[in-house]
Amino acid sequence: MRLFGIETEYGITRDDVDGVDPVVESMELVRAYLAASFERRWDYAGEDPHEDARGFRVSGLQQDREEDEFEKRDAHRPFSFHEMKSDLVLPNGARFYNDHTHPEYSTPECRTLKDLVTQDRAGERILRRAAQRRNKALGGEHVRLYKNNTDFHGHSYGCHDNYLVARSIPFPNLVVGLVPFLVSRQVIAGAGKVGTEAQESGHVPGWYQLSQRADFMEAELGVDTMHNRPILNTRDEPHADRGKYRRLHLIIGDANMCEYATALKVGTTRLVLDLIERGAAPVFELDQPVTAVKRLSRDPDLKTVVKLKNGQRLSAVDIQESYCDVARRVLFGTDEETDWLLGEWAETLQLLARNRSRLVGKLDWVTKQWLIETFMREERIGWNDPWLASLDLEYHNVNPEQGLYSGLEAEGQTWRMTTDEGIEEAMRNGPTDTRGGLRGLCVQRFSDQITSMQWERIQFVGGTRSRNLDMGDLFDPQAVRRCAQVFQEATSPAEALAAWSHGKDREL
């Protein structure tokens, strides 16, 4: 089974001040989750987003300019750039930090969709708990959080899905197999949006569309994530053994409230990667992929067709059905989760074409459209009414007493893969079969002896020299469980590392 994870940047604001400083508010929110004082442990030296999977290295990124601007514009602040980020690694193996102007939660690595969806929902509660503590200090319910992708003022923030992929797959094969799929995936994974938006012109009220990110897609391929945003990100930062693996980092996706949409978004992408590995993915060459993303998003009736280089014209559902049909022929019977995905994918595409009302509570864009159209009929207003942007935003409010999606969930009108008990458990512990859970276990047991952390490495203090747990190639679930047992039973990191090294030597 393939490993995957989700990084979600949340919108944040305060209603008790006129000029909200998102840098400070995001930092204060992250630190509010701590019971103790913040200690910097994340090792940024292990991150290098400049490598491009197409075989070269870029000289600069938007985030580099962001750091330079921070040094100039924010030099007066009583903290450095990295102190501002306030990086935390949580007991469940997740990473929670300030991405300059947005609090971001990155799930631990997951092997099953149920684990992923549960860890994603745990992130919502972790941010909500942090907001409660922050609001207690402020003396009122002033901080508001939104799991969405736009502030309706021309700014977009991301929800990135990530996948472990074999280095042996040529990157051009990933491009050919994935771009048409990602362009059309929004019919399943779109979060829905009122109006259109651009960095230059801001938000324009108007018709309803499928995706919040589509307006901000500007290139087919690219390594950056904040400027000239690409359909397929080419960043080559594997967080694993570079000789064996690459990390597919997708920035085109919306942040989903519906558990079903999250499961299908990640699950169908995993199936397409399986097809690409087997050389079995269908081949479509879109004539203008960036234009296609926007055109398909702006037609909730799903009648728009986009042109292929061979002159053929297909709708988003047509493209998705082609991928689904091939996957059913090639992958059916692989395992229980794959068979479930194949059945749900096919049924969802049929319902989109024939009976969309049955997808309310399962797909976000369908659910939001139903809510908004109900409201419009009751209030006798049209799509150009600016009131609707506020309604759109409140769909994503993570406060269960205010969020429109949360209200539907409380009424039992949404599809659930998780349980409340499972979400609470996921806040405390990561998956037992991935290095994410192992990372969390180390935080639980030996937090005061950790000097620095990366996704693939934990550095402990031991005697007169530092000791490392290298997880760059630790993906076999049985090996992960053996390593976790060693760290669970040891009385110190030094003892655990010695026992783990000795065990590996015996296996050799």
How do the strands and helices of this protein lay out in sequence?
Elements: E1 4-9, E2 11-14, H1 22-32, E3 51-52, E4 56-57, H2 62-73, H3 81-85, E5 88-89, E6 95-98, E7 103-106, H4 113-138, E8 143-146, E9 159-166, H5 171-184, H6 186-189, E10 193-198, E11 202-209, E12 219-222, E13 230-233, E14 245-250, H7 259-277, H8 289-297, E15 305-307, E16 313-315, H9 316-331, H10 336-354, H11 364-379, H12 387-395, H13 404-410, H14 420-428, H15 435-446, E17 450-453, E18 457-462, E19 465-470, H16 477-489, H17 493-507
Helix pairs in contact: 1-4, 4-7, 4-14, 5-7, 5-8, 5-9, 7-9, 7-10, 9-10, 15-16, 16-17
State the shape.
globular
**Helix/strand class:** alpha+beta
Q: Provide the helix percentage.
A: 40-55%
How much strand?
15-25%
Query: What is the number of independent domains?
Result: 2
The low-confidence parts are none
Number of strands: 19
CATH class assignment of the largest domain: Alpha Beta
CATH architecture designation of the largest domain: 2-Layer Sandwich
- Topology-level CATH name of the largest domain: Creatine Kinase, Chain A, domain 2
Q: How much is the radius of gyration in Å? A: 22 Å
- Taking the alpha carbons of the first and last residues, their distance comes to 24 Å
Profile the largest sheet: 6 strands, antiparallel
- Largest sheet strand order: 5-6-7-1-9-14
Mean pLDDT figure = 92
Supply the number of helical segments.
Answer: 17
